[in-house]
User: Fold these one by one.
Assistant:
Number 1:
Amino acid sequence: MAMFYTNDPGVVGPIRSARPYFLELSRYFQGVLVHDGGSPEALGQIEQRNISTINAQSPGSVTFSRQDDRSAPYNLYTQGGQLRSALNSLGLNQTRQVSTRIPEVSDAAESGRNAVVQYGNRRSSRFVYQSASGRYSWLRGSTQATDPVNGQPVLVDAVLIARITAQVLPNDTEGRLYIPLDSGGEATLLLGGRTVTGTWRPDGSEQASGIVFLDGEGTQVNLAGLKVWASFVPGSGTVSVSP
């Protein structure tokens, strides 16, 4: 799930269906979810709670199209400019002042230059610290991920590895998951080539900042203004961090 703030990309996607935990994350960030239909529970919550979303299956001012280089349902895209215009026309666009202070972690923190998050037997994400830029590159397995528009490597300022619980919904033939997020959990933060263990929790206040990370002493590390990759890892996943 990608979050866009002020820098609207030319291409947005692939756009998938909504789930209740996507709605929760969107609420934490005071965002507007863009989706292509959704699970019965998610669509029911959108209607019952009158949640403002942009649904590709509903008529509107945003044009969605499928690209030929990928197979459905992984090929639905739109344009960032259209989404921004839709937010403006619906009165949903927001302005927020974000701190420009660059967060730092203690020099006593352990080195954390590489991390591998393994989801099951086939899928993994790897993050490798780049000393020259002070950022982390993202790899799908062993392959460097690149921006499909400009071909540049995907780089992020920080990596937040958040532990969650995930269970298959009873009697759900599609294997949909129940993922409660309100309670937070254990977490690891990679920032500036160092790693810090602590906890994460959602921030649902009026000045919602999305996801909050607290170090082992309970001090919040301000991640506002940074490009952060958050990996939500269930109990079946494994995480390894190395110097």
Number 2:
Amino acid sequence: MNFVATVDGRVQRVELRGGGGRYQVMIDGTAWDVDARGTEPGIYSLLIDGVSHLVDVAPRDESWVVDVGGETYTVQVEEATRYVIRTKGGAAGADRGQTLAAPLPGRIAHVAVRVGDHVKAGDPLVVIEAMKMENELRAAAAGAVTEVRVEEGQAVNAGDVLMVIG
């Protein structure tokens, strides 16, 4: 499985293979063999390439606080595809408008705007159903919707232009 972990603001790609407590973890191209066991709620014993670590993990808002080896980290983890959708929805700079492109193939589940609508940064624009998940794409900047090139139920390919905001 592929994930993206943001550790204290730094983005890292994580690939996880294995199961049953034994994993191969690749972080930004570096691989580790990991034996992971929960010892009690929120406490884990990790054996990473033969070195033992005791890790305390606690939820905080939409992230996790991880204490290991006397150091504390704030970690957000999300499935890699969802990260791509959230961060690369075709946004351009606010001064150039936004061309919203499909980040992956899917089906349009909902179109939230029409030509002429004014949107603010963060407003929902369209929902794409892909890989059994619904992914909401939002405006990167304020502007007026100048083109809507899709409708509900339509299949789209990665890179297809969905709409343009000027």
Number 3:
Amino acid sequence: MNQQAILFDARGLRPDEAQARALSSFDDLVPGRAMVLVDEQDASWLLSLLHRHRSHQFDWSPLEEGPARWRVRVDRRDRNAPRLRGVMEYLAWDHDRLDATLQDARERAGSGDWKGAMSRFIEFRHGLLRHIRMEEDVLFPAFEVRSGMAEEGPTAVMRAEHREIKAILLRLPDAIENGALEPFEAEVASLLAVLGDHNTKEEEVLYPMTDRMHDENERDELVRTMQGTHGVAQ
């Protein structure tokens, strides 16, 4: 996941040319590698294209969503991975991706590369807020309908922790802008104290329960819907 991604710049290309080149670039990827699409318009066209022609072969991670520039990372899945997706597989994978992005931001800050740290933190924040939106808009309602648990169930706890996470995310940019490593690491420690336990509860309880309550086609449809979720405007 930390390997350098291949850049595909679709700006200025005709739609038919962009689509053909996007599929060709994706086909050139070996499993485990990724490409980053850069475009001047909503990149959802690529998601639709991949669902039509390379279904279940990719993971989708918006990095920047307008208004002037859109960037999306597309990872090629392992050929031996199950064709139909499950909630646990998809969202645990996204946890790992976000962890790696935050770690990269920390390493850049530790080396004094505050510009790079801010760039990677912005990607992390965008991805984490989108992850929260995928859960609250898609996953949690599906879980609550099948389980009958809402007010007193695990999703109520997850929503409360999401609010804590969002509050910390609002404070972190100040430490980066000030080039202050100690305050930055202190805020990261606060975030990880909530996020680590939060992710563990999701992966050990909520995700497996959701998968068990849905058949394989329903699980796959949940994942497709979550992939199409946009991030939160910054």
Number 4:
Amino acid sequence: MKNYKEINESMRTILIDWMISVQHSFNLRQNTLFFAINYLDRFLELKEIRSNKLQLAGTTTLFIASKYEEVHPPSITDFSYITAKSCSIPEIISMENLILKSLDYRLTVVTPNVLVKYLCILDGNIGISVKRLVDYFLELALFECKMLKYKSSVLSAAAVYSARKVLKLEPAWTPTLIKHTEYVEEEIKECGKEMHKLAQEIDNSSFNSLKGKYRTLYNLALSKVSF
């Protein structure tokens, strides 16, 4: 993205925050959000688009991910409506065609959100507090382009590690988790520190939809917590 003439990291951040608000409005699955952002980032690596088409790309990747993941996905009319019709149905169809061709129709991807569910199952001691913290750390990581340098497996492992550290669970990285991830603590510690820093800085961020999402009791009001 650093080679783009019109689109910068700040614009991507604003778009992802908006995509989270759409996920909340349509009650979409976490997987759908992570798939959509994966498609978006891969597409932006391959194609340079104008800044006035960025929301269209984000809307379209959510539309594609919804059809892939949801049992009852919102209609294309719903997606056009939620943009206040700034993205018309013909535009979404055209962008969908461009994105799918650019990605060579490779929509089955392994996201951190998928992997972390297996880690939570494997470690039988992981409770609801850890799970919510893990989700929080992974969503924070979505906003930062610098986090794209990490593999999905590292992100998922680091999120679990960071959650356990916050809750002072000992050991923070168990033999079971080492066995199944094949990562030792030193290999995920730096990624975990970056996630923790994002949580510390959220009050000064523009992640407004994420803040709202994690102010609820269901999400343990994590965006209000001082890390």
